[in-house]
Amino acid sequence: IMDTNKIKKGLGRGLSSLIGDTKAEININKVSISDLVSNKFQPRKMFNEESLQDLTNSIKERGIIQPIIVRKSKNDSSKYEIIAGERRWLSAQKAGLHEVPVVVVADVDDLKSLEFAIVENVQRNDLNAVEEARGYQRLIDEFSYDQEKVAQFIGKSRSHIANFLRVLSLPEAVLKLIETQKLTPGHAKILVGLDNAEFVATKIVEKNLSVRQSENFVKIFKTKKHSLKTSKDTNIQALEASIREKIGLNVLIKNKKNNSGSLLLEYKDLNQLNKIIEI
Question: Is 86 a catalytic residue?
Answer without folding.
Answer: yes
